[in-house]
């Protein structure tokens, strides 16, 4: 099972590997840059729908977040 802190790290790593700013990365997924910033810093938790999009972007299955 993957926790939200791990998701935040994976999201940031994937974004940096892509060479994208938070704004550019967010746009690819239909989010705002501030939303991605708050996710990467662990200030918010994604909704289930957002988690599905994020999971696809970082290359993991959303079901890994649920035990």
UniProtKB/TrEMBL annotation:
This is XRE family transcriptional regulator. It holds the Pfam family HTH_3. Keywords: DNA-binding. Residues 11-65 form the HTH cro/C1-type domain. It comes from the Bacteria. One of its GO terms (cellular component) is cytosol. The lineage of its organism: Bacteria, Bacillati, Bacillota, Bacilli, Bacillales. InterPro entries: Cro/C1-type_HTH, Lambda_DNA-bd_dom_sf, TransReg_Diox_bact_type. The keyword DNA-binding applies. GO terms for molecular function: DNA binding; DNA-binding transcription factor activity.
